[in-house]
Structures are given as structure tokens and as C-alpha cells.
Amino acid sequence: MELQKVRPADIEKRSFEIITEILGENQPDPAVEHIVKRVIHTTADFEYAENLFISPDAEKSFAEAIQNGGVIITDTKMALSGISKPALAKFGAEVQCFISDPDVAAEAKEREITRAAVCMEKAAKLNRPLIFALGNAPTALVRVCELVKEGTLKPALVIGVPVGFVNVIESKEMLMETDVPKIVARGRKGGSNVAAAICNAMLYHMGGRRGGPAANSPRP
Amino acid sequence: MELQKVRPADIEKRSFEIITEILGENQPDPAVEHIVKRVIHTTADFEYAENLFISPDAEKSFAEAIQNGGVIITDTKMALSGISKPALAKFGAEVQCFISDPDVAAEAKEREITRAAVCMEKAAKLNRPLIFALGNAPTALVRVCELVKEGTLKPALVIGVPVGFVNVIESKEMLMETDVPKIVARGRKGGSNVAAAICNAMLYHMGGRRGGPAANSPRP
Known about the structure:
Chain A has eleven helices and six strands. The first copy, chain A, is an alpha/beta fold. The first copy, chain A, is globular.
């Protein structure tokens, strides 16, 4: 099997071309194709062409939050580490994850809930535009939905893409019932990599990338 | 849709039970089921029940390296961040990723190869047992295979699970042709999350987890 000769700088571009070829007549809506294709690029899983729900206000709300001192809250260090720091820095935005904070661990133990759920409460107290990028813990997503329903949280965007088998589908359907701007991977699939890819797709689309337009920018 | 009532401590156990139920008669080999099921747990993607190749010497070689001052080398900060630090600490092992090192970036630019490939060369110079956990860059996996073929690298284990569309399948088939201990996700799928999950499955199996045996320990 021969290796294809592709320059490092062209690998991503070529990857998106191949994704577009494989999608064939099943291309995503041009308004969100940069998001859908980046998730496929991250997972090589074409099921995401079918299962991603992106509310019409999602990307605009994300961009406004990022440009106005917003912070992305993740439920894992892995998602945090996958989100492009240079892109965030370009807009003076940042990403935070409280999962390893000692106060979070102590409170979770005492209340017998997950640390991820406590993290969401801690984030909700921040007086800044909040973007939740949740790729792991359905308990975190459930807690965000509860806080929204109670009226104590008004997030700029909730990216609800936890993965797994216990209350994962349920947590996503709970998010679907709220009226917040949202991006949801319906079904069991998702992940920290997916959460990060969705954030990066939107950051790059905003111009948060060195070296010109992103490979996944919408075609002219 | 009703939420299932599952205590935080039981979520993972219940998840593995559901995975086992769904796999039905298609259970993985008991010797490696903790690895296969943890990857499915991480991705909710049952294709991994079919596409993971695990060489018979892989886990033994991993464990020996971990217990003898070995280091896990990743090609992304995301994989690094997904590998359990408490589990590694239990064995005095560690994980390193050179992708953001300034010397790596400079050399990659000069030689017009990827930073990930340069990282592998840098790792190969370490005088320690080496485990490569590559979930992102096929160029890194290709470089590892080349160094193995040249005889300048003798890794304890290569986890070859890059994801994507350009030279991904080719790089994995190149690894299959070598005689090093290996774990490979054949085809296009994989990821930093998959690389981390494979490492964690083996670390937990070695007893590297607080609170007793892992949910994914082989059944008695």
C-alpha cells in the first residue's frame, strides 16, 4: 500500500475534500457544513452527518459570547485540551474545566452527585457569557438543563454531546426540550473530541486561525 | 423520557453491562474484552468490536514497560490529558507529548514534515521503554514504523489508532507489517480518546485504579 504524497499544510484540506466526496449527494446545510464536516474529520464517523442538531441561533450566539468575554466550560480536561488555545486567544476568550478542583470533589462526595454536575453549578455562578461544551457526562448536561428550567442559568450555547449508555440519550432529549441555543449529537454518540471539534469549527469559522481561512470554511 | 436512577459510582459498571448486553453473542475474546469494551464505552461505536487488532504480546509488553520506568508517548495533548494520571502514578510511570515543544516546531518547519513526526524522533532518543499511543497523526505512526524498520527503535508497544482520511489506513497497515507488539484500529476510525481509552483499560487491568477492580475487569 503506497503512501499518498501530501504536504503537511495540505493534509487537512485534502481530508475535507475526501469527506465532501464521500458525503456525495448527502451534503450538510451550507450554513453548518463546517461544523458537521469537522466532527466527521475528528471521528471518521459519517453518522454525525445524520445525528447533529444545530439550532439556527447556535453559531451566532457562540460568536457573540466569544467576542464579549465569554468562557467555554467543559466537563473534561480532555475537551479543554482539544480546544484551540491560539484561536481562543485571538478573541480574548478562554476555556475552563473545574472537574479536578478540590472543592468540587468534596461537594460531589457529600451530596452523592457527580463531580461533573457540581462543576456546572460552579460555572453557573460566573457572571460571564457561558458556552457549555459537554462531551462526556450526561449528569453535567442534566444539571445544566435543570438550572435552565429553574431560570438560574441562561447559557449562550449548550453543546450537548456526551457519549455513552446511562442517561445519555435522555440528557440530550432534555436539552432538546429547552429553548436555549444548542448543538446536540442525538443518540449515544459524542465525546470530548466531538465537543472540542465543534468549538474549533466555530472558532476557525470566525477567523480564529493562523494562515488564512480554515480548510472547512463554507465554499464561496 | 425518564432519567434512570443510577448512583455516580455505579454509572460505569452499568455502562459496561449494557455494552455486554448489546454485544450479545458477539462478545470479544475474554483476554482483551476490557480493552475492546472500554473503547466502545468511550465512543459508543460498536464498530470497534470488529476493527481492533490486539497482538497477543501487546498487554504483557505494556505492563512490563509501565512497571519498568516506561513512558507513554502521545501525538496530541488531548490523548495525554485523557490518560489516567493516578493510574500512571501508581506505577511510577508517565506520559509525555512533545507536540508543542519549540524545537519540534522549528525542525518540522525546516524539514517540511509534520510536528508529530518530529515528536516521534525525539521520543525514540529516550533511553527508556517506550509505549506509543497515537490517536491522531498518521505521519507520526508512519515515522515510528520507519524507525522500527531501520532498527533504530524497538518500542514496547505501538497503539496505532490515528483517525482520518489521508494515509490513515496506509499507516496502520504499515504497522501491521512490523513485528512489534501492537494494538491497531483498522480502517479510518480511531482518535485521541480511543488511544487514551486503550491505555486506561490496560492500566486499570493492572490494578491502577482506586476503589478496587475496574468495572471492566474480566469476569471470573
